[in-house]
Specification:
Helix content is about 40%, strand content about 25%. The chain is built from ten helices and eight strands. β4 and β5 form a beta hairpin. By secondary structure, the protein is of the alpha+beta class. α1 runs antiparallel to α2. It has two domains: about 130 residues, Sandwich (Jelly Rolls); about 100 residues, Arc Repressor Mutant, subunit A (Orthogonal Bundle), CATH 1.10.10.60. It starts with 6 loop residues before the first strand and ends with a helix. Strands 1, 2, 3, 4, 5, 6, 7 and 8 form an eight-stranded antiparallel sheet that branches.
């Protein structure tokens, strides 16, 4: 038995929102977290990609994960949020942010029912949950293609508001444009432009949460050529207008 894998600081909350909810400022998790959607669905903007989670999906959020999320209900959205620490910060660090589809809610429901009145029983259900999901989740794999395009990813994330050409990104990775484009999409699942747009929208959601900056200014600071283009990309990726997101933060 490895005592480093024991948990501490366990908390569980059932969140309920109406119609639309945005998490607001970009979150950097200083401890692991598990989400479970009971009603509605959510969009996650993480590492230049958009991921959807629906009713019955479990979301594992690893230590250090940084993302934005938008939640949608018809009319309600409900989800469990479980926050915890391992005794060792390095325990299970090989498991990244990921979504388990159609995960049974039975163990989570029992854990929540026991959380206030029978905390030790609740903890036992949580260990059962962890034991199960760590057998089902994918571990981080070393990807030789990923290492080839790492400089391009870093450049996009640090310079998302600037004009960036495929030619330049390929050059800093010492690859031809065609080879770079294929490698980037194979490693990330999206094109360089789609990756950049996701980073821009992720940043825009955070800026909108401040409330003191206009949508036009957000558009400019995020690097969009016009506010109309910004709105078009924003709606395509989030499903809502910037004004709707700001209203529901």
């Amino acid at each position: 038995m490895n005592i480093e894998n024991f948990i501490k600081n366990l908390s569980m909350t059932l969140y309920k929102k109406i119609n639309l909810y945005s998490a607001g400022p970009e979150i950097v998790f200083n401890k692991p977290c598990i989400g479970y959607i009971k009603k509605g669905y959510a969009k996650f903007f993480y590492k230049g990609k958009t991921s959807f989670a629906y009713e019955g999906d479990l979301i594992y959020i690893a230590l250090g994960t940084k993302y934005q999320s938008v939640w949608f209900g018809d009319p309600d959205v409900e989800w469990y949020s479980i926050s915890f620490d391992f005794t060792s910060k390095n325990a299970f660090s090989e498991y990244p942010f990921q979504i388990l589809r159609n995960y049974p809610s039975e163990t989570l429901d029992k854990m929540f029912e026991a959380y206030e009145k029978e905390p030790l029983l609740s903890i036992s259900y949580f260990y059962m949950l962890l034991n199960d999901i760590f057998q089902k989740m994918k571990k981080i794999k070393k990807n030789p293609v990923q290492s080839k395009i790492e400089k391009a990813i870093e450049h996009i994330e640090n310079n998302y508001a600037d004009q960036i050409s495929i030619e330049y990104l390929a050059s800093i990775c010492y690859m031809s444009e065609s080879s770079f484009f294929k490698a980037f999409k194979r490693a990330t699942g999206v094109t360089p432009i789609a990756y950049k747009h996701n980073i821009m929208i992720q940043t825009a959601i955070e800026m909108l949460s401040g409330g003191n900056i206009s949508i036009e200014e957000v558009s400019t600071l995020c690097g969009f050529s016009s506010s109309n283009y910004f709105r078009r990309i924003f709606i395509r990726l989030t499903g809502k207008t910037p004004k709707e997101i700001r209203k529901n933060i």
